[in-house]
Amino acid sequence: MKRIFTILLSAVFMALPAKAQQTPLQKYDVAPWSFEHVFVDYVKDFRSHLIDHGGGQYVGQVDDRYALCGYGQYINEDGDIIIGKFRQGELMQGISLGKYAVTVGSRDFYCSYSLATGELQYISKHGGRETVEVPDTAGYTFMSQTFANGDRYVGEFYKGKRHGLGIYYYADGGLWYGSFVNDIRCGFGAWFKLDNDMVIGLWEGEDERRRVYVPLR
């Protein structure tokens, strides 16, 4: 009985972080933090590199065969940005920022925003496009926000607060990619530093709770 109680209690606590990030509309799959821990544990020893790739440039982690694997950012020759978690050379989950639209999520389950209006346009689940009714999308936007110190956030908002996946650009040139909850950095992410190091791990609030340094080589 004690063992069953322990298992049930663990399941509840594993579910809490994911539930804390829920909003009325499920936009894309969100992995439990326990799964995110597994991903970070898998890629934490992969070095970060700056390499030419597929007509563009990639900065981020690669495996021992130099395949894109881990946290990284890819910018193609047209200036489109793809940032997030990569595996076997492809984006697993993240932000794909084009000229007119941006998609946020995974390859199989993502949402699309218009860059002209910032509004949520549709949700794609496993290859099928799902039209979202206007009342359900109220409050969801993808926008840019500039701060007095010169920092800038580009990413998802919910009811005017940073909420979801986003990119935080520091005025000094570095950037941070990850998830926000009610304007606060909360969850797993990657800090691309100016001194050619990366920091990946779990953020809770504005301070790192768990950090893994990944030098750029």
Give a structural overview.
- The structure is a single chain.
- With 217 residues, the chain is of the alpha+beta class.
- The protein has one domain (2-215).
- The chain has helices at 2-20, 33-43, 134-137; strands spanning 48-53, 56-62, 68-75, 81-87, 90-97, 101-106, 109-114, 120-125, 128-131, 140-146, 152-158, 161-169, 175-181, 184-192, 197-204, 207-215.
- The chain has a nine-stranded antiparallel β-sheet with strand order 1-2-3-4-5-6-7-8-9.
- Strand 10 and strand 11 (152-158) form a beta hairpin.
- The protein is globular, with a radius of gyration of 18 Å.
- The protein starts with a helix and ends with a strand.
- Mean pLDDT is 83; it is low at 1-21.
Which key terms come to mind for this protein?
217 residues; alpha+beta; nine-stranded antiparallel beta sheet; seven-stranded antiparallel beta sheet; 3 helices; 16% helix; globular; disordered N terminus
Question: How is this fold's topology laid out?
Answer:
Blueprint: H1 2-20, H2 33-43, E1 48-53, E2 56-62, E3 68-75, E4 81-87, E5 90-97, E6 101-106, E7 109-114, E8 120-125, E9 128-131, H3 134-137, E10 140-146, E11 152-158, E12 161-169, E13 175-181, E14 184-192, E15 197-204, E16 207-215
Summarize the structure.
With 217 residues, the protein is an alpha+beta fold. The chain has one domain.
> For the largest beta sheet, what order do the strands appear in spatially?
1-2-3-4-5-6-7-8-9
- Unreliable spans are 1-21
Q: Tell me about the biggest sheet?
A: 9 strands, antiparallel
Shape: globular
Q: Determine the structural class based on helices, strands and strand pairing.
A: alpha+beta
Please give the count of helices. Answer: 3
Strand content: over 45%
Structural Rg: 18 Å
What is the tally of beta strands?
16
Mean pLDDT: 83
Name the helix and strand elements from N-terminus to C-terminus, one letter apiece: HHEEEEEEEEEHEEEEEEE
How many domains?
1
User: Ends: how far apart?
Assistant: 52 Å
Q: Roughly how much helix do the residues carry, as a percent range?
A: 10-25%
